[in-house]
Amino acid sequence: MNNMNETILQNFEQETIDERKSNYFQIDFLKALMIFLVIFDHFVAWTIKSEIGVALWERISIPVFLVVMGFNMGLSFKGKENLSLKELYSWSYFKKKFLRFVVPFLILYAVSTFIGLFMYGFDFIAMYDNQYYPNHGIINLFYLIMPFWGPGNWFIPVLLQSILVIPLLYWGFTKKPVLTLILTFIVEIAMQITVFFFIGDIYIGGIISWEKVHILSLFMNSILFYISAVGLGMWFSFGHKLTIKRNWFMWIISSISLVYIIAYQFLNLRLRLDGIPLLRGDYHFLVFPYSAMLVLLALRFLPQKSDWRISKSISLIGKSTYHILLTQILGYGMITAWWGTHYGMDVPFNPFDLIDLVTLWIIFIGFGILWYKIDRQEDLIRRILYYFNFFIVFVSMLFLSFWMQGFWVPIPLMIINIYAIAALIIHYVIKKSLTTPILSVCTGFLVINFILVILQVGVTLPS
Description:
- The protein is mostly helical and 463 residues long.
- It has 2 domains: 2-34 and 46-311, no CATH class; 377-463.
- The protein is built from 21 helices and 4 strands.
- The chain has a two-stranded antiparallel ribbon with strand order 1-2.
- Helix 10 packs antiparallel against helix 11 (177-198).
- The longest helix has 29 residues, at 91-119.
- Mean pLDDT is 89; it is low at 1-22.
């Protein structure tokens, strides 16, 4: 019996790999587009976004990611209708998810904390108090919100919790698909009701209660708070054609969702009872159907396989979105520490801010793709060496842009960036990989210069 189960699990893992090889270009395209919007969202202040109708086109990024998450996981489990929950929650499943999502986040956590301490003079209290507090409560540290916070961090606990929830959700769809989809909406509504009655108004006597804010964030950083979007995506994985009978309901609920979003954006509609919001956050069951319909339309009108010259680049960005998200969390965290905010574009509008936005798109997406490729390295030693290269160069590039504004740049920092240019030439022009011993020596040289940067800044600019 054990041999039989092992065979099933091996086949299951192999088919998952095969499914990824035959990935939907439509999904990669959507994910690539959405990560551009995420970086845009974290750079452009609400004073501008509130005037350009972002609810209809820009704030769809996270809902689309949630729908796609359910769709992709449904496809990865496809053909496993007869597996038990025990088999769905297999060791191979958790191992794969741990390596894919948890390990990169742990690396980011360690690196970002060190960089944050460096930027705040190795004073943890100063970093904690200035980076995100009081929005950042102590309780959030135990909920995977990093002490050196960057925008987008909240999505990490949502994503990691989905690893625990999605196999159960898929099992439900294989048994009672309609009931399971309805239950995802019921669970999400129940979460909103719980928040309404047990948290209520976050203001007490006109003064904000940060204790209530921190408890509210625990709810809003939960996958159950957004489970209907994941449920819709998984529903589509069993059949995503708009014309089939099982998807007719989408025309109704997406129309209702569109009407709500228009009223919310342009008519300032807010659902309240005795002044207390009935719905918390921008992402909920009244918003998700609109984004889910956009996913269906993309699946219908975009090609599953593309021969465009640029399609390979789009697919690579789509596959790298998790690492791009992590990269921009660190990058925007550094920008927040330096500027006091991650919003680089605010009123009055400055056209030159568009250059900064494009630069951040290039840096965050480019380095996110590099991180994704590093994680696919089979040689552990080379992967570790590449990690040192990746984070030192990425952090140094941002530091260089900061310090150039003050017309003083540490020499070791300039050396690191020259090293990065040389690495690009070797990779793209010479197209010859360095041997592990040479890579080790180069990495040691890089580390020494980064230490010199830290020491030089610590002595020259103690503040």
